[in-house]
AIG1-type G domain-containing protein
Amino acid sequence: MMIGETGSGKSTLINAMINYIMGVKSEDDVKVKLIEEKGKATASKTSCIHVYKINHLEGFHIPYSLTIIDTPGFAHTEGIEKDKETVQQIKDCFTSPHGINEIDAVCFVVKASDERLTPVQRYVFDAILGLFGKDIEKNIIFCVTHCDSGIPKVLASVSELSVPCAKDIYGNAIYFEFNNSDSSLNTSEAKDNINLGTKSVILTREVLKEREALQIVLECLVQSIEEVMLKTHEKERIVNILKQHGADIERNGHFEYEEKETRKKKIETETDATNCSECDSTCHHPCLVPHDAFIYFCEIFYWNSTCRICEHNKSSHRREKFKWQKEVVTVKKSYAELKQKYEKAQSEKMSVEMICEKLNSERQEAELKGIRLTEKARDCLQRLREIALKPDPLSTADYINLLIINEKSNRKPGFTERISSLENLQNQMTIRKGLESVPVTAAGEI
């Protein structure tokens, strides 16, 4: 499989491979072109994945058939969304029923002149490595284009970043040099006999399936964390309001205030959604499972039929043509209603101070729930450490920071309150981390 940034010389290299395989020499007048190379250097010559199967014929320069998977160039002129499509296409190539079942080499194409890996190249490596299982590491090699002489500068950056790849006996990344001014291939004899070995993509499929489930879980967790953080902030704000106007409230009992709440509403959809009837929530949308009888095949269920999202059994889930969507609304409430709610629950008369204590208790419970949800998201990411080449592990604090960045970017209703709560949560996690690092004596004393 050939992977590279737009303009790295990937198409030229593939054409050179074909000429080498067919025995075409540099001095020959006629050259073979598998990929048309006309167009701007900044535009990718390939718009989607192409799989070329070259069946062995008498006279070929290699004694076997070869399959070349050509991928669209990254850093495409159409932007990051196009790059995401490319990653999805690569995923489909390995998971579809008639897709690729085994792989011999994953070739990253880079230019020799690059002194350091560009942000785009690092993005490419991270995105692609995240698709593969750990067993593919020794099948990853570098094809360095535009080479003249000497060791390519870009390899120092590859080594510095510890990019997972095949290595020689000295621990250096295995690479092949190509001169793009020549349509033929020239490789050193020392590398002609390297045998990387064929690898099954079974573990890669497991990684892809796990990532799919992980993404669904994270999306739902983010929504739950947003809801909890808003609730935490509102509880704290109401306590401050009650304390500020406590004397007036005790005198006349008539006091109104505004509160932001998260409410659910049904949204009709063209595609099926997997909904839970116990908690009135959408656990997966869109869901491609064809029938309720096969709903346990959906990515959101563990092997024991428990939903990864809501933790209810699969029997509580149905495929429906609507999804539950949460929205933040501002509602007017009165102290009298609040007082009645808590007095009914506690079966006793309650003062402003007692209600504030109850609200503070609920706020603390919400904060703890926020921490548990965030840690669950962290645990989902950590799971990939066991199988993925590039698992992108995050600490709980890292994940909270990502949520804050996301809130600032999206600016959805209630975002300022959620950011405030997330920042408070971040401070708590810092304190918690500090406490965890304090040594404990045999007697259990700090």
User: Anything to note?
Assistant: The chain has two domains: 2-200, 206-435.
